[in-house]
Design brief:
CATH topology of the largest domain: Beta-Lactamase
Low-confidence stretches: none
Mean pLDDT: 84
CATH class of the largest domain: Alpha Beta
Number of strands: 5
Strand content: 15-25%
CATH architecture of the largest domain: 2-Layer Sandwich
Number of helices: 7
CATH superfamily of the largest domain: PAS domain
Length: about 180
C-alpha cells in the first residue's frame, strides 16, 4: 500500500518548494529530471522567475499561472504555505492540450484545402474593419470573386483537379494583395 506522504516522490508531475528567500527546499524526482538546471540557476530559471514577486496575487493561498519554457507550456499551481514560510509549486505539462486547442481554433477559422481564412474569420474581421474604417473616417472595399464554371471543372476533370485549381487560385490571389488585406474562402 502506498502512503499518501509518498505522493510527491511518486508523482509524474514536477513539484517544487522554495522558501521566501528563493532557496530551493525540495524538488521531487520529476522536477529534478524536467528542470535539470534549476538548482544551478535558482531564481534566474524561467520556472521560478517572477514567482516571489507574484506572491501578492495569491488569493486563498493559491495562484495559477501559465509558464512557457522553450517549446513546452506548463500550468503552474502555486500554494502558499504560510505556517512553514514556503511556496509549493505543482507543474502540469499542458503542451499537448495547447497544441490541440490551437488546431481546433485553426480549423474553426481557416479552410483546410486552401489555408485561407474561412467565412467565420471573414465575418468577424469584416465587422472589426467596418468599425475601424468608420472610426478613422477611412474608405474600405469588399470584393467578391467567383470562378465561372467551376462546377464543370469538378464534374469533367474530377475533384482532385478542382481542388488543385482552388489551391493555385488562392496562392495567386494571396501574392497579389497587401499583408493587411484579408482573403477568405
Amino acid at each position: 500500500m502506498i502512503c499518501l506522504a509518498s505522493f510527491p516522490e511518486l508523482s509524474p508531475n514536477p513539484i517544487i518548494e522554495i522558501d521566501f528567500t528563493g532557496n530551493l527546499t525540495y524538488l521531487n524526482p520529476a522536477a529534478r529530471i524536467k528542470f535539470q538546471s534549476i538548482e544551478k540557476e535558482k531564481l534566474k530559471h524561467p520556472i521560478l522567475a517572477g514567482l516571489l514577486s507574484e506572491l501578492h496575487n495569491i488569493q486563498g493561498n493559491l495562484l495559477l499561472r501559465e509558464v512557457v519554457i522553450g517549446s513546452e507550456i506548463f500550468e503552474q499551481y502555486v500554494h502558499y504555505l504560510s505556517e512553514h514560510q514556503l511556496i509549493r509549486s505543482y507543474w502540469f505539462d499542458i503542451t499537448a492540450r495547447k497544441q490541440a486547442e490551437k488546431k481546433l481554433e485553426y480549423r474553426a477559422f481557416y479552410d483546410t484545402l486552401t489555408d485561407l481564412p474561412n467565412r467565420n474569420y471573414f465575418d468577424e474581421n469584416l465587422q472589426i474593419a467596418l468599425v475601424k474604417a468608420k472610426n478613422n473616417n477611412n474608405l474600405m472595399a469588399v470584393v467578391f470573386l467567383d470562378l465561372d464554371c467551376f462546377k464543370n471543372i469538378n464534374d469533367s476533370l474530377g475533384h482532385k483537379v478542382g481542388d488543385q485549381l482552388l489551391k493555385s487560385f488562392a496562392q495567386r490571389l494571396s501574392s497579389c494583395v497587401r499583408n493587411n488585406d484579408i482573403i477568405s474562402r
